[in-house]
Design a protein that fits this description.
About 30% of the residues lie in helices and about 25% in strands. With about 500 residues, it is an alpha+beta fold. A hairpin with a 3-residue loop joins β11 and β12.
């Protein structure tokens, strides 16, 4: 599969698109006013300990206090057991890291209000929630992730060859400082000891600098900033299967070349500067794809479609046959639509960066074999997703429950905000409902109101309805209260907005 990185940089925003076969697979956006903080290290102050939640709130200098769970304070193996969050990647580890561990002590025995601690941001603030933090620091390099608080060597699960795993484990174990931990990343496969040692030395020196710097400052304060979004993506995503990097900024082009020469010497990545007059994302047809990714409905090639609804609690995905009627029988039609939807759902989850709890409502299938086939196809389609996923079997109600690791806001919540009229519901009152609400309000106002005239200011569509289909209701009120109602259209009014003026 041909892959490319397309980078659009301006003074206010950087957008990076990972293309697979010419289409956006992943999109990263960082705005100068809203810089990402995942990976940043802070000296924080505990402001509240919550025994009932086994967690604490920590002031790290942001608008909202950060959330620290008890496992992120003490349980060292929790930091490496299944994955380690590395910027935008999740390196899954082998199962040999898991074992029975004693229960964690109460949070109040570990932390006290006013205590200063060194923490790292694991998840961006999302919605009304503050950042999720951990006291287990992880410093990602190209080939390794350094974990100075954990005595463990882990190997990415994506490295499947057992001999290679043992080779890498032995190399890292021999070279690492005593009592520290390293995760060997997927890109380290087949790398020699020299490359790994260079990565290790850089990360160890970086940690020594951070440790010294943290002692000089009082909480709350920023101790270490992770790389900007361009460098993060290059570090975490750029592999040999990426054929080229295209960037439209000459300054960013120089920076990228310098970064690759410093951190990835020996790799001959093709880095091109875009010189076209057309904006780079337009030239690659990406703006259309981004706009499409913000919509609720996604059409399938067969004529079916999926609906994606993001709520506070979960994301619901509904699969429908739409215009697809099939050629043979209903069950085959349903199976084909569901299998096609599986690929699109997996693609949309990555593109939209949807995380948390996800419920997929496939079209009901009577045959157990078909349900198993759809479930297996979904697992297969999500294998290349860097974010950790967990998929349950299709329920008796025909629903698939799954989770996807969430580190940053989804694409929709990054680029959009709630509608000020409907408050994000996606609905407004119908014209008829608004008219009848106006009638009720007029009835309240006309009785005690002095004079003989009432002026009603409304949206033009509502005015048209009051003049035509609902004219009888206006005349009834005029007759009952012996007052004249004058209807005036206001172009700047929202559909639900109206105003009653007496006299």
């Amino acid at each position: 599969m041909a892959k490319e990185l397309v980078i659009n940089t301006t003074s206010h925003e950087t957008r990076i698109s990972l293309l697979e076969s010419g289409h956006i697979a992943e999109l990263y956006i960082e705005r100068n006013r809203e810089l990402g903080i995942v990976g940043n290290i802070y000296r924080g102050r505990v402001i509240r300990v919550l025994p009932g939640m086994q967690a604490a709130f920590v002031d790290i200098g942001l608008e909202k206090a950060a959330f620290l769970y008890v496992a992120d304070v003490l349980d060292e193996m929790e930091a490496v057991e299944h994955y380690v969050e590395v910027g935008h990647r999740h390196e899954q580890l082998s199962d040999d890291a898991s074992e029975e561990r004693p229960p964690l002590p109460p949070i109040e025995e570990l932390l006290q209000e006013g205590q200063e601690i060194l923490v790292q941001v694991a998840k961006e603030p999302i919605g009304t929630k503050g950042a999720r933090i951990t006291s287990h620091i992880s410093l990602p390099g190209r080939n390794l992730v350094y974990m100075p608080t954990v005595d463990h060597v882990g190997i990415s699960r994506r490295i499947e060859n057992e001999e290679e795993r043992e080779r890498l484990r032995h190399l890292v174990d021999v070279m690492r400082p005593a009592g520290t931990g390293f995760i060997v990343r997927t890109v380290a496969e087949s790398r020699d000891g020299e490359e790994l040692k260079a990565d290790m030395d850089y990360l160890v020196n970086l940690w020594e600098h951070i440790s010294e710097h943290s002692e000089d400052k009082g909480a709350p304060c920023l101790v270490h900033s992770d790389l900007d979004v361009t460098s993060k993506v290059l570090r975490d995503i750029l592999t040999e299967d990426v054929s080229r990097v295209v960037v439209d900024s000459p300054v960013e082009h120089v920076k990228i070349v310098r970064f690759l020469n410093t951190f990835m010497p020996g790799h001959n990545f093709k880095v091109d500067q875009y010189h076209g007059s057309e904006p780079i994302f337009d030239a690659f047809g990406l703006e259309v794809e981004i706009a499409r990714a913000l919509g609720r409905k996604v059409w399938l090639k067969s004529g079916g479609y999926i609906i994606i609804e993001q709520t506070e609690a979960l994301v619901a995905v509904d699969v429908n046959t739409g215009r697809f009627v099939g050629k043979h029988n209903l069950e085959d039609t349903i199976l084909k639509t569901n299998l096609e939807a599986v690929k699109e759902v997996a693609f949309q989850l990555r593109l939209r960066n949807i995380g948390g709890l996800i419920i997929i409502d496939f079209i009901d299938m009577e045959k157990e074999a078909h349900r198993e086939k759809v479930h297996g196809s979904l697992e297969e389609a999500l294998k290349n997703d860097k974010s950790k996923t967990n998929i349950l079997k299709i329920s008796e109600l025909g629903l698939v429950e799954m989770t996807r690791k969430r580190v940053r806001e989804s694409l929709g919540r990054t680029l959009c905000e709630a509608c000020p009229y409907c408050d994000g519901k996606g609905y407004v009152k119908s014209r008829t409902t608004t008219v009848y609400e106006i009638f009720r309000e007029l009835q309240r106002e006309m009785g005690p109101a002095p004079g003989y005239r009432m002026t009603l200011l409304v949206h033009p569509d509502i005015a048209s309805l009051l003049y035509d289909d609902e004219r009888h209701g206006v005349e009834e009120l005029e007759k009952k209260f012996e007052k004249q109602i004058t209807i005036t259209a206001r172009q700047n009014f929202h559909l639900e907005q109206f105003e009653i003026i007496v006299g």
